[in-house]
Amino acid sequence: MILDMRPMLRGEVRRIAIDYSFSPQLPEGVEPNGCTRVCGEVTDNAGYMRLTLCANVGYRGVCARCLETVEDTFTVELARTVAAEGTLTREQLEENVDEYAVVQNGLLDLDELVGEEIFLTFPMRVLCSPDCPGLCPKCGKPLKEGACGCNTREVDPRLAILANYEWAKDEDDKS
Question: How far apart are CA 19 and CA 17, in angstroms?
Answer without folding.
Answer: 7
